[in-house]
Amino acid sequence: MIRATTAATMLLFAGTPAMAQLVPSFAEANAGASTQGARASATAVTATGPQDPASGAGGTRQFVPSGPPPAIPALSPERPLAPRERQAVAAVNRWRLRACRANVDTEGVFHLRQGQCEPTVVCAPGHPCDIAFEPGEYPTSPADRGDSRWDVHPRFSGTGAQRTLHLVVTPSDAGLDTSLVVRTDRRVVSIRLISRARDYMPLVAIDHPQRTEAAEWAGVIANGQRQAALSSVSSNPCDQAPVVPPEAFKIGSGRYSWRPVQVYAVGTPVGQKTCIEFSASVGSVGLPVLIAYGAGGGEEVISYRPSGRRFVVDGLLDKAALVAGAEGSMDSISIERRGYR
Fold first, then answer.
1. Is the domain of 129 the same as that of 196?
2. In a 3-state reduction of DSSP, which class is residue 329?
3. Least reliable range by pLDDT among 127-131, 190-194, 244-248, 296-300
4. CA atoms within 13 A on the CB side of 299
5. Pairing of strands 120-123, 188-195
6. Cβ atoms of 171 and 123 closer than 8 Å
């Protein structure tokens, strides 16, 4: 019983680094009392070491590792690349790693042009990054990310032709580096995602250089066409071809210098206009007042804009009258669109 206890005590002391130096002397002092089995048990947990300088005799001491065990690789060993494969990877890396020309607009949106390099977006935990695509562009499949520690959610802004796809990207940790592949109806975009503890890019736009330039020119041309149309309308809209011909209007009788020679309507970008045209001999003095009659018989004085020898009236007139003179001796000429009741 005493011998077994001695062997167990040796094991207990030898299991702690602080008592490792005491184990050899303790073992020698009890060598006569230990059995062959106890010595075998002690030897099973110890290793032969150099001579103990304190005792001057050889002894045993526990093996204590000097550091952590070697790391186990997460991936299998790589196979060597063939010369052609190395050339292809080098060419792609030159494109991926070259500097991208980018700019930040007045609203804080960081614009990256696709095709110059691989776009890189830096995000931080708790700070979502918004990646915007072109207006009218929509995804054809879910985005593929190389690391599940990134959250990617699609969102949209705008309506109609200006409806824009946004990807809201948020990492769950710092120090992450992966790729995000997005497929849309217009292109395939590969975006490198990097996470930092505090650095992040809140608003990012991935522009397509050719389409962006074409869209800019299209916008300028469309704006010029609108301005030209408005300019023509504001100068003399009645010079356009009528959408409601003169035959559709009935003009009352009367021998007045301001009796219209014809009435018609034209279409403009801002709506229809009714044109009341007078003879070339009409002057600018003593022009009549234009009164419109509603469906219920009510009367309303209508404003018009003189343009040469025409009155330009907003909207399509159904029933109206030109009135001149003082109360009690007024002259009038009726204007009515045929088929209106």
1. yes
2. coil
3. 296-300
4. 8
5. parallel
6. yes
Q: Is residue 264 part of a domain?
A: yes
Q: Are strands 188-195 and 164-171 parallel, antiparallel or unpaired?
A: unpaired
CATH number for the domain that contains residue 303:
2.60.40.2500
Q: What is the pLDDT of residues 24-77, one digit of tens each?
A: 444 444 444 444 444 444 444 444 444 444 444 555 667 787 888 888 877 788
Contacts of 176 (CB under 8 A, 6+ apart): 147, 149, 150, 193, 194, 195
Decide if 273 contacts 313 (C-beta within 8 A). Answer: yes
Asked whether residue 282 is assigned to any structural domain, the reply reads yes
Nearest-angstrom CA–CA distance, 117 and 95: 5
| Overall domain count for the chain | 2
* pLDDT score of 143: 93
DSSP helix/strand/coil, 250: strand
Tell me: do 119 and 166 sit in the same domain. Answer: yes
Residue 4 vs residues 29, 41, 59, 227: alpha-carbon distances, Å: 15, 10, 21, 106
Domain that holds residue 331: 238-337
Q: What is the mean pLDDT of residues 288-296?
A: 85
User: pTM for the full model?
Assistant: 0.43
Give the end-to-end CA distance of the chain in Å, rounded to a whole number.
126
Residue 122 belongs to a domain? yes
Query: 36 CB contacts (<8 Å, ≥6 apart)?
Result: none
